[in-house]
TrEMBL record, chain B:
Entries under SUPFAM superfamilies matching the protein: Calcium ATPase, transduction domain A, Calcium ATPase, transmembrane domain M, HAD-like
The keyword Nuclease is assigned to this record: no
Localization of this protein: Cell membrane
Organism of derivation: Nocardioides cavernae
Name the UniProt record assigns to this protein: Potassium-transporting ATPase ATP-binding subunit
Annotated gene: kdpB
Length: 552, 666
């Protein structure tokens, strides 16, 4: 089987698998968030935490809970890292430094999983499992909760409440993420991923003893992909053979990355009682994802760029067991969701491939985006598209029966401003420091790309690293930490305020004069708005990095 | 007056508007002003042809934006000036309690004063006629030269200050204090002095401000990025890039679009009391239309003759014509018209025939001929009584059929000199629906607007007319309370309602409707309650108002889309120009093949300024609106303004570059 046939079959199989679970999984999630009954274990959680599961929260209260929960999570996770030496199973590793622990705590709580540390040489099992893995579940559950709250904003009329954050968080964790990651972990172990509680000593070929770092890898791997977290047990992430041993596990991982964000469009459609709307959003995501995949695959497979041309192929930084096709597929999927796991070095991708990875994140993580974050991201973009183009049908704009007026536009405008501002200001400040040039692995356009990629990844809560850039200085630990924190919490607060203002409205009945938002025309328009808005914001900075490189 | 002369006339006003306190209202244009100042300073500190040219064109960009607003306002101002002329110091004849008259200036009148106005005099202020009847020339306000009748009592009692009484003498009770009259309000409205940003304008301004901030961030951070990349950028170039990217086109034209929208309404003789109402008109999904005068001609007309058994149709036709030749009522004339259309001879009434007028007692009218023959038309029971016979069963059936269909049956009877009479047949009178109405309603339906007919008729009649006119719903035997309840029910369902009204009892419903159009002929209370006044008092205009509202929103959306789409080409002009020195490979982005980096940047700036001027006519006229479904309208506008917005600047910038590159030093 040639690479091309294998690559195309892999993609076809992936799409078929996603299509197979789309309806049952999406509808299951809709039931989880609309059901009125509680599981026994959930009641226990509510009793222990003193939550009244049948109380409803307004937008402010919901937002305060989400933000407060995240901030507490950061403090706890920092404390666990700082005290590592005193914890069991620390593998003899010392406490983590202050700013690295801040960066790491923010990173995992914000679902970013940017890793400025090397897992195997920095963190013991307790921190990995009780600290990071816990946040892998919770941060993903927070993302879905916020998305569900926004959908409720569209569903409810003249209502002051958006649901109960604690209930949504608990259900997302217990009913969705935990059981699915258990199944996924078993499948990964079956595929050869390591799951142990100790390192292995072995005799290397040279005769010297060698330590092979093992650990509870498969269990963390499952939620790493399923929750769009991306923080690897090992520094090499999914390129490491213990995390991702074969083409099959690689396909499984890409599937796990995409399955929840994709199925959430069905959840949205089911909750809205307007399934065509869910399909339309999936269409937008699918078009952009396919374009990105086509561009990246073309560039990697044909080895675009000076270095690859000289070498004859673009295999630098890729695993031979995956090859160009699977590496491009993984790179596109991990950056188009907010996962950030990598199975190849993005620094070594061709200029177009690396540019696509960056552009995917710059789109705002909406194709299909992070778990939950993709849904609220695309809904916000839909509001924007409806506002500009909706005027063109001669009515004040409305989306799904809700009027978009000054108040809604304020939230949407601030939302769309937040991440670009963080990325651009962060990159601008970093690049104007002399020390940044020293931290770069390359000079010129590629070096610039490394910095731009770092801030893009952090502010958009992706967490993948271009690599090449040394980010352990206090400057990068703090600025990237802040970019992750603000890039997560500010949009969440704005989305919830938007949801609150929508829920409070009545519903405008749809007529022939209403702009339908589930048609191919609207899908095309939304794709256009997303591309133009992203392009306009980032074109100058992309020109100095990937574009300059790609055209060279 | 064409646009060019208007533009030239408004140039001083446009320069006056350079005041930062004025421009602050539009964040986009304010940034351009700051940019102009910055580049001017740079051009002075380090003069070059390029820097001077850029700063000159940036100033022009601001001036062009101001010019658009000034021209839009100028149209209203001209109208206001002519209105003001009619308001000049009128001397009022105030009536004292004892009946004596004193002459006082109109400006001193207070609410409650009684004034006398006689033929040839100008009404000194708004008020209601409490005594007399007069014909009034309202052309100063409506532009309509035909005089109208105003009389005490009823819904036609209001007179407006500034209009002229043509005949008779009336006593008017003043209802509005000087300075708050309809004319004063009109002047301030058309002048735009009381203009506030409408809700949708505010929302759009927020979007434009956020885009401006995003581009500000992109350009500001580009400075250190460019410096690091070995291509440090001049402040002139950075400002030029910023101005090209921020949505100056829509930013410059936004207020002109709003003013022009109000102005378009004024041109169809509708005064909107607020821009908010115009916007709401675009959103209306239910139109409440009065049947009489809007949907039907307002009087019953003969539509066919149904002969009684054994009577030839021609006989009935001629008898009906004969009975109506002298009848000057609209019904009577329509009978004659119908008879002629059906082939009757157009001969005069015999010389010695006597016309018998309708009276409430006989409930018949007709004619007595010299040979003793009498012809009568009237209600079936009246004719039967006159003939002294029972109505034939067949005729009774015809009458019942016509009534069931919502028409009015008019029975024709004849009695010869000998006294023997017979029933000839029945004239079917009905409310005739205006031509083209059902097509108009179908158009509205395709735009998603429901039409509801309001009528005092009974349900049977109403249903028949509603079916014929093609309205979606009707409200029969409607009282003002019914109207109000209907409006509230629609609004609870999230629909916006528009209606017209003229009577005092319409006032609550007019106030409750999202768009309430009061007829200028109506009472002061109605005009006060509505948010628009139709000077022509033509209820059909509601449909025009909705279209103008939609057109206003479409124009805003189209120019916003165009403005943003333009940026794509500007990037392809400016980015390679900025960085080609550091990364020669970026020259491949120079797809337009612009001559030099400087000419590329200057061309983009020039295009950006000229496109504002080029779009002023569109902003003032509004994007053409055709009734169609939202999807069809969107597809068309996306193609024209979205795709067009991407393509046009590529061509425009290239053409400008061909000229600009010939300037030495660029």
């Amino acid at each position: 089987m040639t690479d091309t046939v294998g690559g195309v079959l892999t993609i076809a199989l992936l799409v078929a698998l996603l299509a197979a679970v789309y309806v049952p999984y999406g509808d299951y999630m809709a039931r989880v968030y609309t059901s009125t009954s509680h599981l026994r274990v959930e009641r226990l959680v509510y009793r222990l935490s003193g939550v009244d599961p049948d109380a409803e929260q307004g937008a402010r209260s919901y937002a305060a809970s989400a933000v407060g929960f995240s901030l507490v999570g950061i403090v706890v996770l920092m404390a666990v890292q700082l005290c590592q030496a005193a914890l069991p199973m620390d593998r003899g590793l010392p406490g983590v430094g202050l700013w690295m622990s801040f960066n790491t705590a923010v990173s995992f709580v914000t679902n970013t999983n940017w890793q400025s540390y090397a897992g195997e040489s920095t963190l013991g099992f307790t921190v990995q499992m009780a600290g990071l893995a816990v946040q892998n579940f919770l941060s993903a559950a927070v993302g879905i909760a916020v998305a569900v709250a926004l959908v409720r904003g569209f569903v409810r009329t003249r209502s002051g409440s958006l649901g109960n954050f604690w209930v949504d968080l608990t259900r997302g964790t217990i009913r969705i993420l935990l059981p699915l990651s258990f199944v996924a972990a078993v499948l990964l172990v079956a595929g050869g991923v390591v799951q142990s509680f100790g390192d292995t000593m072995m005799q290397a070929l040279s005769g010297h003893p060698q330590v092979l770092t093992g650990g509870p890898v498969a269990s963390q791997e499952a939620i790493k992909e399923l929750g769009n977290n991306g923080g690897g047990f090992f520094n090499a992430n999914s390129a490491h053979p213990f995390e991702n041993p074969s083409g099959w596990t690689n396909l499984l991982q890409v599937f796990l990355i995409l399955v929840t964000p994709v199925a959430l469009t069905r959840t949205l459609g089911t909750m809205l009682g307007n399934r065509r709307q869910g399909v339309a959003f999936l269409g937008v995501m699918g078009v952009l994802w396919s374009l990105a995949l086509a561009a990246a695959t073309w560039s990697e497979v044909t080895g675009q760029g000076a270095a690859a041309q000289a070498a004859g192929a673009a295999m630098e930084g890729k695993e031979t067991r995956f090859g160009e096709w699977a590496s491009a597929l993984f790179a596109v999927s991990t950056t188009a969701t907010s996962t950030g796991a990598v199975n190849a070095s993005h620094d070594s991708l061709t200029p177009v491939g690396g540019g696509v990875a960056m552009l995917n994140m710059m789109l705002g993580e909406i194709v299909p985006g992070g778990v939950g974050a993709g849904i609220y991201g695309i809904l916000v973009m839909a509001v924007l598209a409806v506002f500009v183009a909706g005027l063109m049908v001669g009515r004040t704009p409305e989306l799904l029966g809700k009027k978009i007026s000054a108040r809604q536009m304020t939230y949407v405008a601030l939302y769309t401003l937040t991440t670009p501002a963080l990325v651009l200001v962060g990159t601008g400040v970093a690049i104007s420091r002399d020390s940044t040039s020293d931290a770069m692995g390359n000079a010129g356009g590629h070096g610039f790309s490394e910095v731009l990629y770092a801030f893009t990844s952090a502010a958009n809560n992706n967490g993948s690293a271009f690599g090449g850039l040394t980010v352990t200085s206090d400057f990068f630990q703090v600025t990237l930490g802040l970019a992750m924190l603000l890039g997560r919490l500010v949009p969440i607060v704005l989305v919830l305020l938007l949801a609150g203002s929508l829920a409070a409205q009545g519903r405008v009945p749809a007529t022939a004069g209403t702009l339908p938002t589930h048609t191919p025309l609207f899908v095309g328009m939304l794709v256009g708005v997303i591309l133009v808005m992203t392009g306009l914001t980032y074109f100058p900075s992309l020109a100095l990095g990937p574009i300059a490189e790609a055209l060279a | 007056m064409n646009l060019l002369t208007q533009g030239a006339q408004q140039l001083p006003e446009a320069l006056r508007k350079l005041d930062p306190r004025h421009l602050w209202r539009s964040p986009v244009m304010f940034i351009v002003l700051l940019g102009s100042v910055a580049t001017t300073v740079a051009a002075i500190v380090d003069p070059s042809v390029f820097a001077v040219a850029i700063s000159a064109w940036l100033w022009l960009t601001v001036v062009f934006g101001n010019l658009a607003e000034a021209v839009a306002e100028g149209r209203g101002k001209a109208q206001a000036a002519s209105l003001r002329a009619t308001r000049t110091d009128t001397l009022a004849r105030r009536l004292g309690a004892d009946g004596t008259e004193t002459a006082v200036p109109a400006t001193r009148l207070v609410v409650g004063d009684h004034v006398v106005v006689e033929a040839g005099e100008v009404v000194p202020g708004d008020g209601d006629i409490v005594e007399g009847i007069a014909s009034v020339d309202e052309s100063a306000i409506t532009g309509e030269s035909a005089p109208v009748i105003r009389e005490a009592g009823g819904d036609r009692s209001a007179v407006t200050g500034g209009t002229r009484v043509l005949s008779d003498r009336i006593v008017v009770r003043i209802t509005a204090a000087a300075g708050h009259t309809f004319l004063d309000r009109m002047i301030s409205l058309v002048e735009g002095t009381s203009r506030r940003k409408t809700p949708n304008e505010v929302a759009l301004s927020i979007l434009l401000a956020s885009l401006t901030l995003a581009f500000l961030a992109a350009v500001a951070t580009l400075a250190p990025m460019a410096a690091w990349s070995g291509a440090p950028q001049d402040v002139v170039v950075l400002v030029a890039l910023l101005v090209c990217l921020i949505p100056t086109t829509i930013g410059a034209l936004l207020s002109a679009i709003g003013i022009a929208g109000m102005d378009r309404l004024v041109r169809v003789n509708v005064l909107a009391m607020s821009g908010r109402a115009v916007e709401a008109a675009g959103d209306v999904s239910t139109l409440l239309l009065d049947k009489t005068g809007t949907i039907t001609y307002g009087n019953r007309q003969a539509s066919c003759f149904v002969p009684a058994p054994g009577v030839a149709e021609g006989g009935l036709r001629d008898a009906a014509r004969l009975s109506s030749i002298a009848d000057q009522t609209p019904e009577g004339r329509s009978v004659v018209d119908l008879a002629l259309r059906m082939g009757a001879d157009d001969q005069d009434l015999p010389r010695d025939a006597v016309f018998v007028e309708f009276t409430a007692q006989t409930r018949m009218s007709g004619v007595d001929l010299s040979d003793g023959t009498q012809v009568r038309k009237g209600a079936g029971s009246a004719i039967a009584a006159w003939l002294g016979t029972e109505q034939p069963a067949e005729v009774r059936e015809i009458v019942a059929d016509i009534s069931r269909a919502g028409g009015t049956p008019l029975v024709i009877g004849r009695r010869d000199a000998a006294g023997t009479g017979e029933v000839l047949g029945v004239i079917h009178l009905k409310d005739v629906v205006k031509e083209g109405m059902s097509e108009r309603f179908a158009e509205l339906r395709s735009m998603g607007i429901r039409t509801v007919m309001i009528t005092g008729d009974n349900a049977l009649t109403a249903e028949a007319i509603a079916r014929e006119a093609g309205v979606d719903d009707f409200l029969a035997e409607a009282t003002p309370e019914d109207k109000m309840a209907y409006i509230q029910r629609e609004q609870e369902g999230g629909r916006l309602v528009a209606m017209t009204g003229d009577g005092t009892n319409d006032a609550p419903a007019l106030a409750a409707a999202d768009v309430g159009v009061a007829m200028n002929s109506g009472t002061a209370a109605a005009k006060e309650a509505g948010n628009m006044v139709d000077l022509d008092s033509d209820p059909t205009k509601l449909i025009d108002i909705v279209e103008i509202g939609k057109q206003l929103l479409i124009t805003r959306g189209a120019l916003t889309t165009f403005s943003i789409a333009n940026d794509v080409a500007k990037y392809f002009a400016i980015i390679p120009a900025m960085f080609v020195a550091a990364y020669p490979s970026l020259d491949r982005l120079n797809v337009m093949g612009l001559a030099t980096p400087q000419s590329a940047i200057l061309s983009a700036v020039v295009f950006n300024a000229l496109v504002i001027v080029g779009l002023i006519p569109l902003a003032l006229r509004g994007v053409r609106f055709r009734a169609a479904s939202a999807t069809a309208v969107l597809r068309r506008n996306l193609l024209v303004f979205g795709l067009g917005g991407i393509v046009v600047p590529f061509v425009g910038i290239k053409l400008i570059d061909l000229i600009v590159s010939t300037i030495p030093g660029i």
